[in-house]
Design a protein that fits this description.
- The strands form two sheets. The chain has a four-stranded parallel sheet with strand order 2-1-6-7. A three-stranded antiparallel sheet has the order 3-4-5, with helices on one face.
- The protein is of the alpha/beta class.
- The radius of gyration is 16 Å and the shape is globular.
- The protein is built from six helices and seven strands, in the order H-H-E-H-E-H-E-E-E-E-H-E-H.
- The protein starts with a helix and ends in a 5-residue tail after the last helix.
- The chain has one domain: Rossmann fold (3-Layer(aba) Sandwich), CATH 3.40.50.2300.
Length: 202
């Protein structure tokens, strides 16, 4: 794992997560554990309206947390509309040490690296049922209220788990922009770390 990313992970304070929130996170833990116990592939699809901010953060940090705790898992993300992975999301990830290269204009592909291997994540805005996402046997994790309210049913999902986060978009083009995006990113990172710290691998 890249040194700066590892330093961020090691400094995360999962103890600050409130008890009520941990109960919500335990739903994700239980799903992952059930798949591990059954020797089945763990697939998490993080879904938000535009697949631009929170769902992208969750995809990245869940991969990092799973890798940190050696839990076999693949993360995906999608939305109910296609826009673009917000440039502020990418800027925040870079501030936490991720190496990112981008190609394209309207909906760029951002290749994200967090370790020394050739396995990279590719972030871009897409529908939750995009061909690159799993069609079945996955957990649909709803990261925003709009997607959660407007998509009561996700075809092919084993479970649908609401895990809402506050949208940092409200701080766009303000002096608090970077701070709000980084706070959202770190909150998601802490919760993903908590989730995978609870999973027991055979």
């Amino acid at each position: 794992m890249l040194e700066k990313v590892k330093e961020v992970v090691e400094k995360l304070d999962v103890g600050s997560i409130e008890y009520e929130r941990k109960l919500e996170l335990e739903e994700v833990v239980a799903y992952i554990q059930s798949k591990i116990n059954a020797d089945e592939t763990v697939k998490l699809n993080f879904i938000c309206t535009h697949n631009s901010r929170r769902s992208q953060f969750a995809q990245v940090w869940s991969e990092v947390a799973a890798d940190f705790y050696d839990v076999p898992m693949t993360a995906f993300s999608g939305g109910v509309e296609v826009t673009a992975c917000n440039e502020r999301t990418i800027a925040s990830l870079k501030r936490f040490g991720f190496e990112i290269t981008s190609e394209g204009d309207e909906n760029p592909r951002h290749v994200v690296n967090y370790d020394d291997s050739e396995r990279n994540l590719v972030l871009y805005s897409k529908l939750y049922n995009d061909i690159t996402n799993p069609a079945d046997d996955f957990a649909a994790i709803m990261t925003c209220s709009d997607a959660d309210d407007n998509c009561p049913f996700i075809p092919g999902a084993d479970v649908r788990i609401p895990l809402r986060y506050e949208d940092p978009k409200s701080a766009d083009d303000t002096p608090e922009e970077s701070e709000r995006y980084d706070a959202c990113s770190l909150k998601i990172a802490s919760e993903m770390l908590y989730i995978f710290s609870k999973v027991r691998v055979k």
